[in-house]
Amino acid sequence: MKKKIFALIAIMAFGFASCQKPENPNNEPETTPAELVAGVYDGQLSILLGGFPIGDPTDQQVELIAGDDGTVTLSITDLSVMNGEFTFDQISLEGCPATENEDGSISVSTEGTVTLTFDNVGNCDIDMTGSIKDGEAVLDLNIAPEMLDGITVTAHFEGTRSETATE
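^ that's the sequence the OP posted. Answer follows.
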């Protein structure tokens, strides 16, 4: 009888232990989706004005910077549009949630519309959505410059991570 009780206790203990999370022997913090996608991406940027292409796709670098809160900042520097007619030294969309999907991709997006102000175009309402998987990023920005009175600019970026985030 004692052997049966001991066996039952052993089975219950084994079952309970198998339901627990795997141990983290070094107590290292888990990597967040934002940290997984952080880095510099080299690729092509296509811009459409009211649904019509503005020139050919151009080479562009985009950086995703991981925040401490699980979000990323999308940073685009030295952007030139319409053969240099419009230039942007820095575009930053901060606090974009990064979420891991079942297929292993990570989604990033603005939380609603973000308004940025630029010297050469004024206020722009921007929303961004994107997906990163296996070092490949696809990002779409919908931009509504106040000066264009309802005409939307769409920026589509596809690129490959060239370097991971520096620590």
